[in-house]
Design goal:
Layout (H helix, E strand, L loop, with lengths): L6 E5 L4 H12 L3 E6 L13 E4 L5 H15 L2 E6 L14 H22 L3 E10 L12 H20 L4 E8 L2 E2 L7 H5 L7 E2 H12 L10 E4 L20
């Protein structure tokens, strides 16, 4: 895909899926603007790119970042809301403030960035929100992250309707994605119907497609990318599965 001259804003672009998106959009000719709380691994060689070390929990950081993007580029074309993290949940004693922090980053910041940018999207503008299969299924002690990811799925279709005719808004829910290059057991791979762990490129390629004109009739959708794992029905003593407690 050719994104020459396109301006892409990506949150959480220092590592993992976000970093992979930055690299691929740059390679396709786009100018990237990134906000992340981390400062490492951010040596972008393209002088047209912008990296801001900021905290998406803080309104003033979001405001400064958005203003700087518009000052530099005058518009944006695509907004990818990728940043989020977990403060765990009930079993770890996650406090009200710690729970709220995750919601501010995972749901509040995407809403506020959209509000600040909504009048400045170029023709064919698109927003891609990164959720998770944890919005729909859980392990224990994951309430803060699961709530944020569930929230951004709902935010996706709400914004798609509010921005109808101006900006398309879609969502991706990744499953198990290798963001560190570590070694995985054969069992880790084989449990997936596709027999492998997901790669960051699996999410990046879909995000780029959802931004492109090729997906112009897709709007308000959440697309699960998990190798079929969330479709696998599991019962004790069925197909080698055993429940242990």
């Amino acid at each position: 895909m050719d994104f020459t001259g396109i301006v892409v804003v990506i949150t959480g672009g220092a590592r993992g899926i976000g970093r992979n998106m930055v690299e691929h959009f740059q390679a396709a000719g786009a100018r990237t603007a990134v906000i992340d709380i981390l400062t490492e691994n951010t040596e972008y060689t393209n002088s047209t790119d912008f990296y801001f070390t900021g905290d998406l929990k803080k309104e003033k950081d979001i405001q400064f970042f958005a203003a700087e993007v518009l000052k530099r580029y005058g518009k944006i074309d695509y907004l990818i809301n990728n940043a989020c993290y977990s403060n765990k949940g009930l079993l770890s004693g996650c406090s009200f403030e710690a729970f709220d922090e995750v919601l501010r980053v995972g749901v509040g910041a995407p809403y506020y960035l959209t509000k600040l940018f909504m009048e400045y999207f170029g023709e064919g503008g698109a927003i891609v929100n990164i959720a998770s299969t944890r919005a729909f299924m859980s392990q224990e002690d994951t309430e803060s992250y699961s709530a944020a990811k569930g929230g951004i799925v709902a935010l996706t279709h709400a914004m798609a309707v509010s921005l109808a005719g101006k900006v398309r808004v879609n969502c991706i829910s990744p499953g198990w994605i290798d963001t560190t290059g570590e070694k995985f057991s054969q069992e880790d791979k084989e449990q997936h119907p596709v027999k492998r762990i997901g790669k960051t490129e699996d999410i990046t390629k879909l995000a780029m497609y959802l931004c492109s004109e090729d997906s112009s009739f897709i709007n308000g959708e959440n697309i699960t990318v998990d190798g079929g794992m969330s479709k696998l029905m599991i019962y004790h003593n069925d197909e080698g599965w055993e429940y242990k407690r």
